[in-house]
Structures are given as C-alpha cells and as structure tokens.
Write a structure and sequence with these properties.
It is built from 19 helices and ten strands. By secondary structure, it is an alpha+beta fold. Strand 3 and strand 4 form a beta hairpin. Helix 14 runs antiparallel to helix 16 and helix 17 packs antiparallel against helix 19. The protein is globular, with a radius of gyration of 26 Å.
C-alpha cells in the first residue's frame, strides 16, 4: 500500500505555456507524455462510492494497472489517500488482486466481483515531470488534459497535480507557490472520479448546503477539535467554490463567506491556547478576503426586494421607480467575471495553500508553551463547557431580557450573535442534538430577523430620492415592516433566554 500526498489544481488549457516557463530552470530528473485510459467500476447501487472508494483499471502502452483508492483526507486541495496498485492484463476487474484487508469488512467480495460494471471512463494526455527540489525532495508534476465520459455525457479535464514522491511536504507547497504566483490556478478537492460519478448520475452540480456541525466525540482532544473544525470549514469552502464555478449564484459565495467567518471564529475560540501570532498571516489574509466579499449582503438584500419585479413592494405607488433604482444599484456590484478573477488569483490561492500547509504541519505547535501543550491534549468537553458558558454570558449581555431593544441595537450585535452561534458549531456533536437544536433555534431566528432589518436599509436610501406623498408612503411602509419584525424578534429573544443551555 502507498499513501498519495498530492495537491490538485484546476487550470485553463492556456496554462500549459505558463507551466513550461515556470519549470524551465527546474532540475528535471524525468519527463514523459502518455495517453491514459481509465475505466472506473462500481455496482449498480454504487456500493464502492458509498464507502468513498475509487476502483479503476488504467491502461497505457498496453500495460494495465488496477487501482483501489480508499477513503482519505482532503484539506484545501491537498489529497492524502491510501492507494493499492496491482498489475493486470485486461480491462476486466479482479477484486482478488488487492489484499482482503484493503476492502471494508462489510463488503462481500464474491458478490462485489459479480456486481461490478463499468460506470465511466477518463481519457486524457498526461505530461509529466519529476522535479528535484533544492532540499532534496522529489515531486512529480503532471498536467492532464482530456475528458470524462459516461454514455453520451462528457466533462472536460484540465488539471495540474503535484505529488510528493520523496522528501518533505513543505517542498510540495514551495513548488505550488511558485506555479501559482501569477494566478490562473485554483485548488480543487474534486477528483476525476468524483466528476465521473456525478456525470454518471446525471448530476450537473451539487446543492447549496448550510454549514453543519463538526464531527467530534467527547473523547477528542482540544487539538483534535481545532484541526477538525478547520478542515470542516475548508471542506465547506471548497464545496461551494466548485458550485459557483459550475453555475454561479451569490448563494454559493455567501457560503464561502460563512466558511471564512467560521475559520476566523475558530482562531478566536482557540486563541486562549494558541497565541494569535501563530496565525497572524492567515488571519490577515482571511480579513482581506472577507472584505472582498462585503458587497454580498447588499446584493442579497437588493435581490430580495426586486424579486418577481418588486413583488414585496407592490403596495407602494413608487414601486416601479424604486425597483428601477435598485436594479441600477445592483448593476454596480461585482459580476461573475470579477469573482472568477478573484477565485483564480495568486493571493486567493496562496491563502488556501497557507491554510493547508498550516493544518498539515500543525504550524501552531512551535508557538505553544508547556501549559498550552497540556491544554491542547486535554479533553474537549471541559474546554467547550467553559467557552460555551462565556459565549452564553456574552449573549445575555448583548440581548438583556429586561431591555427594550430597537433596530440599531439588534444590528449592532449581529457580529456578536453570529460568532457565538459559530462557536457552538465547533462543539455541537458532543452534546444532545435535541436539546442543542431547541436552544439554538430562537437565536438563529434572531439572526435571521437582523437580516430582515438590514434589508430595509436600501429602501431608506431610496426614500431620499423620493418626494412628497411617495416618500411619506415609503417611510410609513418601512416603519410598519420594522415594527412587525422587532415585535417578533423581541418575542424570540425572550424565548431564547428562557431555554436552559444544552451544555449545562
């Protein structure tokens, strides 16, 4: 068995010339170009896919190699997957060529052999270079161009892969930084096999999903939780980046922002153990990227107001004028081309590379003193209880039960509320789901209510462009909406305070 450690990038075909210039001065030990044909197999019920297993036969120069890739780890484009290779003599799969222990225990190998069938194929030209790095590490660089085929459906392949053959993982990131310094590369966690499975299933793109809780158990350490939370956020980030690339949509970008905010909150949550200087560069770059997306909330609010030709504003005499003005305002916001430029920029790619390297090498550890190391190895349950108690007190201070809160009061606490809810996501899985959901629901509703209040802001701006009765009518409409939202939010706040914390 081997374990692949590789970085995968999606690029455009014209990246070929950039790649050639980047490695012109590198020490090339080997170079080749070959046509690769791969057939991927699974059962009609996609049993292997359900176990996160890739099973293929690769053909090149009349040589057949059967490969079994088992479940691994993907962090910001860095792939680590156990891999079993066996020589073969045809395109007919033979499960007995791999060790029995390589397969999941619950899989009946005899039945699997009978049920296997071709699912899709990947056919591409691979240009390959074996590069000797200055530290003595050897890295295989591959540039793949071709297609994934399933029946009549085809998807293009244009990828750069860097695989560590020997030496230090840092060398992998050093070469990646060099290749990406002019932009045009996008880190990816979608394999050719994943693309093929989706094509075979007739699935054009994945669905938007909310940030779920981090997979944890009460036996995990503080450091386990820290790593799992960061990896969880990056997975959410990459998942929605791919959706945006495939079908655009501001909602996918919103989820990227959620992942960015979650990472920033994770670094804050654990700052009592991990000094801020350990993540100074990453935090600075996350702040930069977050600011690049500040227009998204404005886009969301305007979109909601003008949907169905301004249906939400149908009772206003100035509806058409307001909708026209909002449309003009919307057209000044960044467009898909601007977003794609950002997602393929050197700085964006560099941030993800730095995050991946930091997690993989545990780059915070050199900054820990003995006390911090002891805390990081302690159980997460006690640490999480203290943190959740602190966040609970922050919420009580921000939304006091006996205070009469107005629009500005709620909006001013939006960041505080959002961050506290994200803290709960870190530790959610070690507590009872029913109690946890019951506790979080009113606070999540309160956050949605703040969003509703903020959606009225573009209309306040529009009121300055109106005169006379139209202006008065709009201001009265805004006041009614605000009053209704605030009433519901005050009720929700009181309900939230009355629910016992699920961690106590």
């Amino acid at each position: 068995m081997e374990t692949e450690i590789e970085l995968k990038f999606f690029v455009l075909p014209e990246f070929s010339s950039i790649l050639q210039s980047k490695i012109a001065d590198a020490k090339i030990l080997q170079q080749s170009s070959k046509n690769l044909g791969n057939i991927y197999f699974d059962t009609p019920s996609q049993l292997l896919r359900k176990h996160d297993i890739g099973f293929r036969i690769r053909r090149f120069d009349n040589v057949y190699v059967q490969t079994l890739k088992t479940s691994g780890r993907v962090v910001a484009g860095l792939h680590q997957r156990p891999e079993y290779n066996a020589e073969h003599d045809s395109n007919s799969p033979d499960v007995s060529l791999h060790p029995v222990e390589a397969w999941p225990e619950q899989v009946n190998l005899s039945q699997l052999q009978q049920d296997l069938e071709p699912l899709f194929a990947t056919n591409f030209v691979r240009q390959q270079w074996l590069i000797a790095m200055s530290d003595g590490s050897h890295i295989e660089l591959a540039f793949d161009q071709g297609e994934v085929v399933s029946g009549d459906d085809v998807a293009l392949i244009c990828e750069v892969e860097l695989e560590l053959k020997s030496g230090q993982t840092d060398a992998l990131f050093t070469l990646a930084r060099t290749l990406s310094e002019d932009g045009g590369m996008r880190l990816g966690n979608q394999s050719k096999a994943a693309k093929g499975y989706r094509l075979a299933g007739g699935q054009l793109s994945d669905e938007i999903k909310a940030l779920s809780s981090v997979n944890l158990s009460s036996n995990d350490s503080v450091e386990d939780c820290f790593i799992a939370s960061l990896e969880h956020a990056l997975e959410h980030w990459h998942y929605h980046e791919q959706i945006y690339i495939e079908r655009s949509g501001a909602q996918a970008l919103q989820e990227i922002c959620t992942a960015i905010s979650f990472i920033r909150q994770i670094l804050t949550v654990f700052s009592g153990v991990i000094p801020r200087r350990a993540s100074a560069v990453i935090r600075q770059e996350l702040k930069w990227l977050n600011e690049e997306f500040t227009w998204l909330d404005q886009a969301k609010y305007i979109s909601a107001l003008i949907e169905d030709k301004g249906q939400p504003l149908r009772r206003l005499d100035a509806q058409k004028q307001i909708v026209n003005n909002l449309n003009q305002q919307f057209e000044t916001l960044p467009v898909r081309k601007d977003c794609l430029t950002l997602l393929q920029s050197s700085r964006y790619c560099g941030l993800l590379l730095d995050m991946s390297r930091w997690i993989l090498t545990k780059g915070w550890q050199p900054f820990l003193d003995n006390r911090a190391k002891e805390l990081m190895s302690a159980s997460i349950e006690g640490y999480s209880t203290d943190l959740l108690n602190n966040t609970w007190q922050q919420l009580l201070n921000a939304f006091p039960i006996d205070a009469s809160l107005h629009c500005g009061d709620y909006v001013a606490q939006k960041v505080c509320l959002s961050r506290n809810l994200m803290t709960g996501i870190c530790f959610a899985d070690i507590y009872d789901e029913v109690r946890r959901s019951k506790f979080r629901m009113p606070w999540e509703d309160l956050l949605a209510g703040i969003d509703d209040l903020e959606m009225l802001e573009p209309l306040r701006i529009q009121s300055e462009l109106l005169e006379g009765d139209e202006k008065d009518q709009l201001l009265r409409w805004i006041e009614r909406q605000e009053r209704s939202i605030l009433h519901a939010m005050n009720q929700t706040r009181k309900a939230g305070v009355d629910i016992p914390p699920y961690w106590q």
